Amino acid sequence: MHSDPHITPTIAAHVLFHLGRGGWPGSTFVQKLLQAFDAADAPNRLQLAAGFAGYAAALELAKTADGVAILQAHVADH
Questions:
Q1: Are 12 and 75 in contact (CB under 8 A)?
Q2: Beta carbons within 8 Å of 46's beta carbon, 6+ residues apart
Q3: Are 9 and 70 in contact (CB under 8 A)?
Q4: What is the pTM of this model?
Q5: 73 vs 33: CA distance, rounded Å
Q6: From which domain of life does this come (predicted)?
Q7: Is the pLDDT of residue 46 over 80?
Q8: Mean pLDDT score of the chain, rounded to an integer?
Q9: At 35, phi and psi to the nearest 5?
């Protein structure tokens, strides 16, 4: 299993919800943060990642072939 220490089960759940793949919603701030990651260009994504490493890592993981399944397993193990 993928084990990025920044990706907690809660972060995984928030990202999955954001992607429409399960999980549960985060606070209004978290929902807007995930929208900001989506809207950001590369330099601004790096700045967001500096403050929110777990969300950045989970979003990048979700882009990989089995990333969503890994995030779902991370939530299920919680």
A1: yes
A2: none
A3: no
A4: 0.93
A5: 23
A6: Bacteria
A7: yes
A8: 95
A9: -65, -40
